[in-house]
Amino acid sequence: MDHHHHDEENSNESKSLFSTGNSAQEKGFSYVPERYMVPTFQRPNLAPQYANNVAVIDIAALMNNNGSSARNRFRVIEEISEACRGLGFFQIVNHGISESVLEGAMSVASKFFELPTKEKLKLCSSDVRKPVRYATSLKDGVDKVQFWRIFLKHYSHPLQHWIHMWPNNPPDY
Question: What is the pTM of this model?
Answer without folding.
Answer: 0.59
